[in-house]
Specification:
By secondary structure, the protein is mostly helical. It has 5 helices and 2 strands; from the N terminus they run ββααααα. It has a domain at 43-141. The mean pLDDT is 82.
Length: 142
């Protein structure tokens, strides 16, 4: 559903609190989940490009949905939703010990705040999600 806030002003939330859903400029991209409730959360841009260019890119949009939805399209069990690079990484990391996976996960999570090209950030986040799945799977085996 599209809402044109210049014509249909929304300034009050469901509990009477003041809102400004368009704060931060246009287009405004928001996500909604259990943590954010009806107020939603604000998407944080990853590039210096226009929002429509950034989220118009299939990989960037998929990364956005996965990041804010706390999900992954790539399954380590079935390999469905995984690209060739992810499948190779799953193969490489699935032979590692839980300790090795935790070390690699900590290293990659520590790199997330660093400035890097958008495509590298997408790949970093994909690896983090794979490692989290591997860690959970190994934890279940113990």
């Amino acid at each position: 559903m599209d809402v044109n806030l210049s014509q249909e002003r929304i300034s009050e939330g469901p509990n009477g609190e003041q809102w400004n859903p368009g704060a931060g400029g246009w287009p405004t991209i928001r996500y909604f989940n259990k943590e954010t409730g009806l107020k939603g959360g604000t998407y944080v841009k990853k590039t210096n490009g226009a929002m429509c260019d950034e989220l118009g890119d299939d990989e960037m949009m998929t990364a956005y949905v996965e990041e804010y939805g706390n999900t992954s399209a790539c399954s380590i069990e079935t390999k469905q939703g995984c690209d060739e690079r992810e499948v190779a990484y799953i193969g490489k990391m699935s032979t590692k010990s839980l300790e090795d996976i935790e070390v690699q996960l900590k290293r990659l999570v520590g790199m997330e705040g660093n400035s890097m090209k958008p495509e590298l950030l997408v790949w970093l986040k994909k690896r983090v999600k794979i490692l989290k799945q591997l860690k959970a799977a190994q934890g279940e085996e113990l």
